[in-house]
Design goal:
Blueprint (H helix, E strand, L loop, with lengths): L22 E2 L2 H13 L1 H8 L12 H13 L9 H4 L2 H4 L5 H10 L2 H21 L9 E7 L2 E2 L9 E2 L5 E3 L2 E5 L5 E5 L10 H14 L2 H4 L15 E5 L6 H9 L3 E5 L4 H10 L7 E4 L5 E9 L14 E8 L14 E8 L5 H9 L3 H10 L11 H25 L9 H9 L3 E6 L2 E6 L6 H13 L2
Parallel strand pairs: 2-8, 8-9
Antiparallel strand pairs: 1-14, 2-6, 3-5, 4-5, 6-7, 9-13, 10-11, 11-12, 12-13, 14-15
Helix pairs in contact: 1-3, 1-16, 2-3, 2-7, 3-14, 7-14, 8-10
């Protein structure tokens, strides 16, 4: 019996030559840039960045930051990656060189960065006005967390050994739960403490500064509670469980959820509750149904800690112990115990659901790490702080784009999916009636998504 003919080739044989014309790449990044222009992002940033050189800069610094954000959204990890946009002048116009991008990051000082944040807040306010995700009168939930970023050079200012034995930086973030936006990003040395009160308060204040005025009202240090128009609640892990941070929340009329640390009072409360089954209620899943195996109990009456703000509640959840379970509040052979403090009213089981949703921060940080956070390209700490701010800006621009221009699963798609399917879509450039017309390649699976996005951009007012 003769062997069957097999063709295992994954490609067709072609001749590759330079000199292609009439073809454009990154059509989806052009869509994202058009969206940024429609929001007036570049103009807002330009007004916040002073120019100290002679005449007018060849590349407007606001435009440089927006085009750098487009580069990061497309998967860029260094200033050199801006070259991928430079070859697309028909779509992106005059794009700065990598040296101009690097120079811009070094020109921006801390005071200018504050102005950029204020300009971004103005654009964010308009996005929130248009987005259904931010309407209503429910509390605005903020999430604080920090993450280690490894670097492989000892020449970067303030890079330092980390508590996990690595080397690099330890930035801290505050996210808006409803939208996934990075409201605040603080670059810190690698040896910065996880529970540093001043850093938690800094990112909290920076995040409040990014909220629309009607939401931020009454939530600055020392504000009269009567000024509050909409509740703001912050969630943090045990690093936020400090007297100083909780006092700062109370001084800002901001509610809190923080993971409880194991101590003598908590241990005693758990010991008293063990074996009293009537205090344990079935916990709820995110959809509101009972969650098999886990239970919730409020143990507020069993603790008396003068360091906690008045009205603080202790709520504990227990889950069946399983191999590899993380450290528990209380040693047990049957259950893993985990608890949190909160000053919020309501059913303990529903509050437990709200606190568990703090886990969303892991998704937000993963999105940042997939969009430039893992690379700090400069030796200067200030320049790297500017890089971090631009990484956050790029991530927010993408989130705004998803919220206002997409439907269905694309509203929550991860960066990798967006790049493969949307941002790097190819097209053919046609000149017609003094217009540049881009025709997305036949058969591209997300052509309708792109066309719908362009239509929505045109409708933005």
């Amino acid at each position: 019996m003769g062997a069957s003919k097999v063709n295992g080739n994954s490609t067709r044989r072609v001749v590759v030559e330079p000199g292609g014309k009439g073809v454009v790449a990154h059509v989806g990044l052009h869509t994202l840039g058009s969206f940024a222009d429609r929001l007036g992002l570049g103009d807002a940033l330009s007004a916040a960045i002073p120019w100290e050189g002679n005449g007018v800069p060849v590349h407007d610094r606001g435009k440089v930051l927006v085009q750098s954000a487009l580069m990061l959204a497309g998967g860029g990890e260094s200033c050199l990656d801006i070259e991928h946009l430079r070859i697309g002048a028909d779509l992106f116009g005059s794009v700065p060189s990598d040296t101009t991008v690097a120079r811009t990051f070094h020109e921006i000082d801390e005071s200018t960065r504050v102005g950029i944040a204020e300009a971004t807040a103005g654009v964010r306010r308009e996005v929130w006005r248009r987005s259904s995700a931010t309407t209503g009168d429910a509390p605005v939930l903020l999430d604080i967390d920090a993450s280690l970023v490894e670097v492989h050079s000892e020449n970067k200012e303030q890079a330092a050994p980390t508590f996990k034995g690595g080397y690099g930086f330890h930035p801290m973030f505050c996210f808006a739960d409803a939208t996934g936006e990075t409201l605040a990003a603080l670059l810190r040395p690698g040896n910065a403490g996880a529970n540093t009160v001043v850093d938690h308060v800094t990112v909290l204040d920076d995040a409040v500064g990014q909220l629309p005025a009607e939401v931020a009202a009454g939530h600055r240090a020392g504000d009269d509670p009567d000024l509050v128009q909409r509740a703001v609640v912050v969630r943090a892990d045990s690093a936020g469980c400090t007297e100083g941070f909780l006092s700062a929340c109370r001084a800002r009329n901001i509610g809190f959820f923080v993971s409880a640390r194991s101590n003598a009072q908590v241990t005693a409360a758990l010991f008293d509750a063990i074996g009293i089954e009537e205090v344990w209620l079935p916990s709820l899943a995110q959809d509101g149904d009972d969650k098999d195996g886990s239970a919730v109990a409020e143990l507020t009456s069993l603790i008396d800690d003068a360091k906690l703000p008045s009205g603080t509640r202790l709520i504990v959840r227990r889950e069946p112990l399983h191999p590899g379970a993380q450290r528990s509040l209380f040693p047990s052979l049957d259950f893993r115990y985990w608890g949190f403090y909160t000053d919020q009213d309501g059913d303990p089981r529903e509050l437990d659901v709200m606190m568990r949703a703090h886990a969303h921060v892991e998704q937000h940080i993963c999105r940042l790490k997939d969009s430039g956070l893992t690379r700090f390209p400069f030796a200067s700490f200030c320049a790297n702080a500017n890089w971090l701010a631009t990484v956050a800006l790029a991530a927010d621009l993408v989130r705004w784009f998803q919220l206002l221009c997409f439907e269905g699963s694309w509203r929550d798609a991860r960066p990798k999916a967006l790049r493969w399917a949307v941002f790097h879509a190819p097209g053919r450039l046609v000149h017609r009636a003094r217009q540049r017309v881009v025709r997305v390649i036949d058969g591209w699976p997300t052509t309708k998504v792109l066309l719908d996005a362009y239509r929505r951009i045109e409708l933005l007012t």
